[in-house]
Write a structure and sequence with these properties.
Layout lengths: L1 E19 L2 E15 L4 E6 L10 H10 L3 E3 H4 L7 H14 L21 E5 L5 H10 L4 E5 L5 H12 L7 E5 L6 H16 L6 E6 L7 H8 L6 E3 L6 H9 L5 E4 L1 H4 L2 H11 L2 E4 L6 H14 L6 E4 L8 H10 L1
Parallel strand pairs: 5-6, 5-12, 6-7, 7-8, 8-9, 9-10, 10-11
Antiparallel strand pairs: 1-2, 1-4, 2-3
């Protein structure tokens, strides 16, 4: 089938800088695309790359879009190279929306409504700010939180951690996300600290896992750590793309896989792999708009195992997007 293809870049400013081990992030940039088939049905997609996380750059994605003709085919959509995983996701999810997989054809309020069958994890900022911000998010219904570590000196973070775990309600689940920013010694100290708190029954809440404690190139050390402590480890940057995810599974990883649909690559190939191997997944946001989020939540609803909260509690980092999105749709 043939489709009319249009696209438009966008920029969204964070309400406050997102600080991780990768640095400060102030503006989310991406591309909204639209496919119109021969019968007039529309499919909306989004390309939301994070190059420092393992995807293509925004410039590479824009170059790909600019090189395409105004009319494209199924063959073009399903032959996007693996070097452009965010493009694979954007085009294929637009194709799926147009075909009715997500049960709506044109942009409407359903894009902005969370999937009620899923539990959400809220992202806390790094440092002491988390000690207060969790309260607002708790009132909004969140019971799982992710806190960024590996940003400040480990002694300072451990002190804040001690305060945080005794401040959060006992029914909370807490995830610690290092974004690959710990040394081997620091990773051991964090894991030992969590194990020790559990063993001494001093922990009023559950530490669900430590996410990506070491850099991607230290996979074997992460694998070793995962067998040395009771506190679970999740891979994130190590499995940013489907190619990486498959490689880590082949090398023996049977722990938790954090999957960011917006940059992982082809949704159809991801479904096939997850159904074949029944991996333990946590689906997570790339700070996309509601367009990519709807497609990502569809995948999460289909493929999530073990009833883990998904990492899409990030709306508090942006202004409301209804009016902003509507102007983008109108321009296309």
């Amino acid at each position: 089938m043939r489709y009319q293809f249009k696209f438009r870049p966008y920029q969204r400013r964070f309400l406050r800088s997102l600080t991780t081990n990768h640095g400060n992030w102030d503006i989310r940039e991406g591309i909204i695309l639209r496919l119109t088939d021969e019968s007039g049905k529309l499919g909306w997609g989004e390309i939301a790359p994070i190059c420092w996380f393992g995807s293509e750059t925004l410039e590479q994605a824009l170059d790909f879009c600019r090189r395409l003709p105004g009319e494209i085919t199924d063959e073009i959509i399903f032959s996007i190279p693996d070097e452009l995983p965010a493009c694979q996701f954007g085009f294929e999810s637009a194709w799926e929306m147009r075909s009715g997989r997500d049960n709506f054809i044109i942009p409407n309020s359903s894009l902005l409504t969370p999937n009620s069958s899923l539990f959400y994890s809220a992202l806390l900022p790094a440092g002491e700010v988390a000690l207060n911000q969790w309260k607002t998010l708790w009132q909004q219904g969140y019971r799982t939180f992710k806190w960024k570590i590996g940003v400040y000196a480990i002694a300072d973070e451990l002190e804040i951690f001690e305060s945080l775990i005794h401040t959060l309600p006992a029914s909370t689940k807490l995830r610690l996300d290092a974004n690959g920013g710990l040394s081997y010694e620091e990773a051991n100290l964090w894991l030992w600290t969590c194990d020790n708190l559990k063993a001494n029954a001093e922990l009023p809440l559950e530490i669900e896992f430590i996410e990506q404690p070491l850099p991607v190139e230290q996979f074997q050390q992460i694998l070793e750590l995962s067998t040395s402590y009771k506190t679970a480890i999740a891979l994130d940057e190590s499995v940013a793309t489907l190619r990486q995810l498959v490689a880590c599974h082949q090398q023996g990883w049977r722990g938790i896989f954090v999957i960011k649909p917006g940059i992982v690559g082809s949704p159809s190939r991801l479904r096939k792999f997850c159904h074949q191997h029944q991996i333990d997944t946590v689906f997570s946001s790339v700070f996309e708009t509601a367009i990519a989020r709807q497609a990502a939540l569809q995948l999460a609803a289909e493929l999530s195992q073990n009833n883990r909260a998904i990492g899409f509690g990030i709306n508090h980092f942006f202004e409301q997007e209804e009016t902003w999105l509507q102007s983008l749709w109108n321009d296309l």
